[in-house]
Structure formats: C-alpha cells, structure tokens
Amino acid sequence: KNEVEQSPQNLTAQEGEFITINCSYSVGISALHWLQQHPGGGIVSLFMLSSGKKKHGRLIATINIQEKHSSLHITASHPRDSAVYICAVFMDMGRRALTFGSGTRLQVQP
Amino acid sequence: DAGVIQSPRHEVTEMGQEVTLRCKPISGHDYLFWYRQTMMRGLELLIYFNNNVPIDDSGMPEDRFSAKMPNASFSTLKIQPSEPRDSAVYFCASTGGGRHNEQFFGPGTRLTVL
Q1: How far apart are CA A57 and CA B37, in angstroms?
Q2: Cα–Cα distances in Å, from B16 out to B77, B84, B85, B112?
Q3: Residues forming a β-bridge with B48
Q4: Cβ of B108 and A33 within 8 Å?
Q5: How far is B76 from chain A (nearest CA, A)?
Q6: Angle (CA) B104 B45 A70, round 5°
Q7: Which of A17, A73, B7, B40 falls between 20 and 30 A from A105, CA-CA?
Q8: Beta-bridge mates of residue A47
Q9: Are strands B5-7 and B31-38 parallel, antiparallel or unpaired?
Q10: Helix H or strand E segment including B20
Q11: Taking CB atoms and an 8 Å limit, are A96 and B101 in contact across chains?
Q12: Which phi and psi angles does B24 have, rounded to 5°?
C-alpha cells in the first residue's frame, strides 16, 4: 500500500464545475504539499498545509491531521486548470523531503 | 530571482555513456533536492542536501548514480554508466530553512538513454 493515496486518478469536468481531489496518507506527517504539473511538465507549488484551510483565488485546500486526509477544491473550474495535481507529504518531524502521491489528472472541458 | 535553473533541458545519450545533470538553486536556499519522475513510479526522491551536505541518499538507485554539491549555488547528478531504464525526467528543487518549507522546482531535465 502506498503511503500517500490520491483519488480519483483521472477526472473530467465541464467548465464551471466544482472539483474535489482527495489525498489520504498512512503515516504521521509534519506538513502536506499540493503541487500542480502542467502538460509542459513544470511543477508548481499551490499550497503548503500543516492544519486547517488555505485559499488562493479559486483554489481551496483543507487538511484534517487526525483523519490523515486532505482535499483540494477548485471552484468555477476552467480549461486552464487542466493539469496533474499531486499531493506530497513531509513524513516525520525531522525529515525535509517529500513523499508523493501518484497524482490526479484533471481535464476541464469548455 | 530566476528560480531554480537546470541544465540541460533535454539529453539523449546512448547506453553506457556518462550523463551529468546540473542544478542551480534559488539564492539563499539551504536545501536542495533531486527527484526523478517516471510513468511507472511517479515522482521519487533521489537525494537531498542541507548546506551542501548530503542528508538522505536512500533513494539513489544504485552505485551508478552519484550527486555532489560543491557549493551553495551548484549541484550535479551523475549517472555512469547510463542504462535505458534511467530514462526519466529529473527535477531539482530548493527550499529555505523556514518553517513552511515550500519547495521550488526547476523545469526538469528529460533524459533519454537509447
């Protein structure tokens, strides 16, 4: 079993829909990272979370440390949101490196 | 700041050749990470450095892989000899030692070993 699990693996939505991507992890973490990878391949950090909720524009990320679960929400989705969204966690207090989920491929159709 | 810089962006080589990938982290960042991305395994950590010192190299696949960080502004990842299964995108990322530890990724090097 992977230490970081994402669902769904693939998601197709219509423009304007509300989208939720889920991430569950099986180990203790110090923080969780949501990343976006566009078809060109570059990776961009969207959020870094250790508790609660963060919002940036149409993107919202939440984390529940007790339940070992995080969600990434996209409101009013747009075709330019089409990308792979990757959840990654910092495992243990002392380690700095990231352990990655397998990613969710999102396609938003106009 | 220009962000994390990697070179080359693309590399095609033949099996058995030596490959060297380069990374310049963001100025002032004291952590540097090398990751590999493949279709089969996704993103994986290879090695990371703190203040130019390797901290965790448990992800380095085998002795054919080596990484160095001779100073705060430069790191290399070397594969010798290269094999077709090393074909992947190699990312370098850096971060400052601050609490939130957000990592900034370079554009990646796409390596193809024939």
Answers
A1: 29
A2: 16, 9, 12, 12
A3: B33, B56
A4: no
A5: 18
A6: 70
A7: B7
A8: A34
A9: unpaired
A10: strand B19-24
A11: yes
A12: -115, 115
Q: What is the pLDDT of residue B34?
A: 96
Ranges assigned E (strand) in chain B = 5-7, 10-13, 19-24, 31-38, 42-50, 53-56, 65-71, 74-79, 88-95, 104-105, 109-113
> What residues in B contact A33, CB-CB < 8 Å?
102-103
Nearest CA-CA distance, residue B89 and chain A, Å? 9
pLDDT higher than 70, residue A94: no
Query: How far is Cα A100 from Cα B11, in angstroms, rounded to an integer?
Result: 25
Handedness of CA A39, A45, A49, A53 (dihedral sign): negative
Q: Judge residue B58's burial from the number of C-beta atoms within 10 Å of its C-beta, 0-12 exposed, 13-18 middle, 19 or more buried.
A: exposed
Tens digit of each residue's pLDDT (9 = 90 or more) over A33-78: 999 999 888 999 999 998 999 999 999 999 999 999 999 999 999 9
Amino acid at A72: L
- Whole-angstrom Cα distance, residue B93 to residue B102? 10
What confidence tens digit (pLDDT) does each residue in B27-64 have?
A: 999 999 999 999 898 999 999 999 999 988 888 988 89
pLDDT at B98 over 60: no
Closest to A64 (Cα-Cα) out of A23, A104, A102, A18: A23
CA distances from A83 to B34, B44, B91 (A): 22, 19, 18
Q: What is the DSSP code (8-state) at residue A109?
A: E
